[in-house]
Amino acid sequence: MNVTIETNDHWIVENHLIFKHEFNDSLDKYANLLNKYIHLIFSNYDNWKICIKTDNEYVNKYVNQYIESKFNQPIELNQNIAHLIMGSYFNWHFKYSSV
To answer: Which residues of the chain are under the pLDDT cut of 70?
Structure first.
């Protein structure tokens, strides 16, 4: 797998949209981006490869790369999302979009 795009707040890897651990903004401005991917992850790691390999679960082998995701914002999911992995601090109900 190769990173297709890396920004300050997320990685895009094939069909994965992975928000980095420090991300905690509203997802409103990412609506168009969210519609394009089936895997949505709020990473607990500082490395996308480890995040995918571990399914974002804590693994002692990667303790130095493990940084709990700060994301804790309301989220409205679209029908495209087939695989969702939330970070450690998420504490909201999901709302599903009909679009």
So the answer is: 1-3, 98-99
Amino acid identity at 61: K
Q: State the Cα–Cα distance between residues 80 and 94, nearest whole angstrom.
A: 14
Q: Is 28 helix (H, G, I), strand (E, B) or coil?
A: helix
What pLDDT is stored for residue 79 in this prediction? 77
Decide if 41 contacts 56 (C-beta within 8 A). Answer: yes
Q: Residue 57 is part of which domain span?
A: 3-96
Contact 38, 81 (CB under 8 A): yes
**pTM for this structure?**
0.89
For residue 84, which of 56, 60, 58 has the smallest C-alpha distance? 56
DSSP 29-91: GGHHHHTT-SEEEE-SBS-HHHHHHTTT---GGGGGGB--------EEE-TT--EEE--TT--
Quote the number of domains for the chain. 1
